Amino acid sequence: MTAMGFDSPGGPDVFRAEELPVPTPGEGEVLIRVAYAGVNRPDVIQRMGHYPPPPGASPIPGLEIAGEVVAQGTSVTPDAIGQNVCALVTGGGYAEYCIAKFSHCLPVPANVSLAEAAALPETLFTVWHNVFQRGWACDGETLLVHGGTSGIGTMAIKLAKLFELTVIVTCGSDEKCAAAVKIGADHAVNYRNTDFVEEVKRITGGKGVQLVLDMVSGDYVPRNLACLAEDGRHVTIAVLGGMTAELNMAQIMVRRLTLTGSTLRARPDAFKDLLCDEIFRTVWPSVEDGTLRPEMDRSFPLAEVGAAHTRMEAGDHIGKIVLKVGG
């Protein structure tokens, strides 16, 4: 099979095609002929040398795929072969074939394209776990999301609106703010020309938001905390702005704030089993009936993965970038 790997970390031009043996599925696993693979920020960070795959994971990037199950290991339901599925994987997505745990796969409805299906798992699993499980989001609350037009940001908007939250997002241009509102955000703040802390206070009448989904960290954290209402929750899922923050712990105690965060890739399979099952029961009906769709940006051929990474790093995309791998 053809896969896109790299010999040493670097820029988008380090990718090169390589021929590898088609992997064999083990117990509880399936082999998927990949039609599309999603491109995510962790792929970029891995390519740069800052996010090595966990032990046992494929060194080939790619954390979400969609395609047809063509082989299966033991302990997998007999009718798996021939199913179109999308899957969350720990690596290996930038290849013509990829191994996935069958318990981390979701069936692709007939009315969902494989390109759209490949754009769902990473963002859907991440947002569901961090906004609703760790962040305890409830109907009627207000959520602040940074990077409102990213893959995570657009999914956060759409999921939050499914469950009747008010959504405030920050974006880096007026055009992106307009796009975020069109996608479903109630308010969009251009952080380049507006103090988002003051704007959140204005929008909420000084009450603040109940939840912040933070992908920046660093010096954004104290500003995010200033946006929170009493008993508010702050959930960090990336540290694009730095790994350290200076906090006033007395304010956290007095206002009863909760700070948490998570990464997904290295979590145990059993955790992902439960997460996938909850998403299937709670969210997947909205995918099946057409209510929930990923926001799609562009598709690139697998051989042009470097161009896909360049687009992501430039920050011009709105929604998900995917790679077309197979027919």
TrEMBL record:
Highest classification ranks of the organism: Bacteria, Pseudomonadati, Pseudomonadota, Alphaproteobacteria, Sphingomonadales
GO terms of molecular function: NADPH binding; oxidoreductase activity, acting on NAD(P)H
InterPro entries, A to Z: ADH-like_C (IPR013149), ADH-like_N (IPR013154), ER (IPR020843), GroES-like_sf (IPR011032), NAD(P)-bd_dom_sf (IPR036291), Quinone_OxRdtase_PIG3 (IPR014189)
Boundaries of every Enoyl reductase (ER) domain copy: 10-323
Organism listed in the record: Pontixanthobacter rizhaonensis
SMART domains: PKS_ER
Protein name: NAD(P)H-quinone oxidoreductase
Superkingdom: Bacteria
Keyword vocabulary terms for this entry: NADP, Oxidoreductase
